[in-house]
Amino acid sequence: MKNYYILSIILLLTSIVFSQKITPKESKIEKVTVFLAGASIERSSVIAVIPGENLLLFNNLSPDIDESSIQISGLGNATITAINFNVDYLEQKQVSEDYKNLELKMDAILLEKNTLENLLNGFQEELALLKKNQRINSDATDLSLEKVKEMSSYYRKRTTEIGQEIYAINLEINTKAKEIENHRLELSKLESSKKEARGEVAIKLNALKTESLQLKIKYNITTAGWFPSYDIRAKEVGKPLAVSYKANVFQQSGSDWENVLVVLSTGDPNTNNVKPILPTKYLNFTNRNYTTNYPVRSSNYKYNPTIKSVTGIVTDESGYPIPGVNVIETGTSNGTQSDFDGNYYLSIRGGRELAYSYVGYETLNYPIYATTMNVKMIPDGNALQEVVVTGHGIKKENKALGYSATSIESLLAGKVSGVNVSNQNGLTGAANTIKIRGTNSFSSNNDALYVIDGVPYSRNNFSGVYGNLDSARDFDLDPDQIESVDILKGTAATTLYGTEGRNGVIVITTKGGKGIENASGNYKETGITNTQFEIKGFQNIKSNTEITVIEIDNFNLEANYNYYVAPELNENVFLTATATNWEKFDLLQGEGNVYFEDAYAGKTIINPQATTDSLVISLGIDPSIIVKRERLDNFKKSSFLGGYRIIENEYQIEIKNNKRTSIQLVVEDRIPVSQNKEIKVSDVVTSGSNYDTEKGIMKWEIQLLPNETTKKEFSYTLKYPKNKKITL
Questions:
Q1: What is the Cα–Cα distance from 210 to 244, expressed in whole angstroms?
Q2: Residue 667: pLDDT above 90?
Q3: Residues 528, 517: Cα–Cα separation, whole Å
Q4: Strand 690-692 versus strand 644-657 pairing type
Q5: Which CATH class is domain 309-383?
Q6: In angstroms, how far is the first alpha carbon of the chain from the final one?
Q7: Which of the 8 DSSP states describes residue 244?
Q8: Is 134 helix (H, G, I), strand (E, B) or coil?
Q9: Stated pTM of the model
């Protein structure tokens, strides 16, 4: 009953606020923090208040505001009693100057086109009249020969002139039509899908005196983000790689960002940050419809709206291609299948994610992040009903942390006054709750709001902005990294953090180190879970479908250069650069444009998620190294023994270095591996290679002098039933 009474009061206050006519207040976007998915907007407004109740309305805002993220600061002695967000579908977005200018230009071109069409109609009418008059005159019997010649000459000349005029006018009309179409395309880029709806925030506050307030309004939106890309330049083999780290920023919030400070964050507030608790796994019999929850796969892939088509190879856990894998654009009927070699191609039709599915494997979902998306399928253990699976305890070495991971709860327990830390049910590993004494006690969900380095985290579901945080927070923090812990209660909490701070706020500030200025002049600050880049100067980012490219950093990477070839698949030799010490630059997964010796060499994928300490970058094909792979026919023999066919194969790989410098070349080839006991592979000769018997991969590391040629040979014998075919 008590909760019902309080809810009634809140609804009454809200209705009072929005039932009155309020003059909208002006506000300006000052700063934008763009996440990988989403953005935080900071607006400022100078407001004069009087003693008592004041009603404020801020309109012409984005309609995509997450209401629970709204924060108001700069209140002085005033206090907020009600706040609400609404979408006004009657108010239209103010048309930008660029849009107006394009409309005016297109109207002028339309007028010119209509004038030409009217002129064309006039000439066509004149031509029709000439033809009609010519027939009338031909019926006259009193015309002299000279008169006939004169009239014929006139008709011929005038008809020719009109025909030329009509042809020229048609050319001009076609040109104008193309100009109109181009202007329409440009207008479509400037049009926002939400231009007919505008957001507005209404605030009710009480002031103690007449004063001028410098209000700061902060809120989150989901219709913005950024994705990384790279320009990688290698002047010559042996020189460091020059890397330009770029951010591709997009926003369709319905509001242009004009002359704003931009901060780029590598964080993603959509990610669920709840630490999982691993329970005991109990085995029992169940029905065939039982399904197992798959784990959340670690991934930093982010949607790239510029991708129009995707190609790639689908392989199994051993690297072998899988034919027939379904590749579907999520939310559409658009899809394809991988071919016999695991290759696939798909044109994108507006989707944001691809789903990969195949019998016996987990369905994998990845955002469309690059033009090349190679996927390794993961076996589905549930599909193997009659197979005994043994865990071999494969151990992966962890990097030393250098400290003991400690939860926020244990840091605060008994060390910060006014804070009560308790276990919900007394069980080991169960979630703890943190409550600040003196705050709401009538709500069943009265956990405090966490703010770590300025980023709020609460137990509530922030409509997808902060993830579904429905259990106690268990961040792993290094105690030595915590600079200070502050407790906010009452109006101090709600003033800064809105309604989400009504149960109190625990503000944790980490040391994080002072930000540093990088080579691009941007200010870089590294926190515990993300990195922020404060971009120098002011930026203008329109609300449309275009991408704004901002350079984050540029730096050199020391690299070791190697050449690689797998002639059974491709006889072209690829140059790769293996870079080290790249971790300090906080790179993200992204596509890179590669330039070698000042020429464009293609695209590559930067994958910082790899567990190796080095970053391998493909620099393209070097045509000055020639590789030929051929079967030696003089050695090839096929014979029969009983019910078996026996085939002896020998191959030769010839390599020539036509460069003027020595090279280090890695050559890989393979011996087939049998998956059936009736197929035997024997008499394997690998010519001194590093041979992996399980995978059948041979590897040669060859040093070649200028103009040097070398040869490698290998052979094997196959034996299998003569009435069967094999996948050779």
A1: 52
A2: yes
A3: 19
A4: unpaired
A5: mainly beta
A6: 77
A7: E
A8: helix
A9: 0.55
Phi and psi at residue 200, in whole multiples of 5°?
Answer: -145, 145
**Rounded Cα distance, 546 and 280, in Å:** 50
**CATH 1.20.1250 matches 97-190:** no
Cα separation of 444 and 424, whole Å?
A: 13
Asked if 263 contacts 539 with a C-beta cutoff of 8 angstroms, the reply is no
> DSSP secondary-structure letter at 239?
S
Cα-based angle 355, 252, 296 (whole degrees, multiple of 5): 30
Compute the half-sphere exposure of residue 686: CA atoms within 13 Å on the CB side of its CA.
Answer: 19
Q: Is 121 exposed, middle or buried (0-12, 13-18, 19+ CB in 10 A)?
A: exposed
CA distance 228 to 606: 10
The angle subtended at Cα 667 by Cα 666 and Cα 669, nearest 5°, is 145
Beta-bridged to residue 720, according to DSSP, are: 645
User: Can 309-383 and 626-721 be said to share one CATH topology?
Assistant: yes
Q: How far is CA 157 from CA 119, 148, 168, 397, in A?
A: 19, 14, 17, 92
Per residue in 367-419, pLDDT (tens digit) is 888 888 889 888 875 544 433 333 333 333 333 333 333 455 555 655 455 56
Q: Give the bridge partners for 356, in sequence order.
A: 327, 364
Structure tokens at 239: 């020189």
The vertex-71 CA angle with 70 and 75, nearest 5°, equals: 140
Q: Which helix (H) or strand (E) holds 709?
A: strand 709-721
Q: How far apart are CA 45 and CA 28, in angstroms?
A: 7
Multiple choice CATH, 626-721, 2.60.40, 2.50.20, 3.30.160, 3.40.50: 2.60.40
Tell me the pLDDT tens digit for each residue of 282-336.
776 666 655 566 565 556 677 888 788 899 999 888 778 888 898 999 878 788 9
On the 0-12 / 13-18 / 19+ scale of CB atoms within 10 A, 677 is exposed
CA distance 636 to 506: 77
Burial letters for 696-726: b for 16+ Cβ neighbours within 10 Å, e otherwise? bbbebebebeeeeebebebbbbbbbeeeeee
Taking alpha carbons only, the member of 401, 352, 357 closest to residue 377 is 357
The arrangement of strands across the sheet holding 449-452 comes to 455-457, 449-452, 505-510, 482-488
Phi/psi zone of residue 614: left (φ > 0), alpha (ψ -120 to 50 degrees), beta? Answer: beta
SS3 state at 580: coil
Domain boundaries, the chain: 97-190, 309-383, 626-721
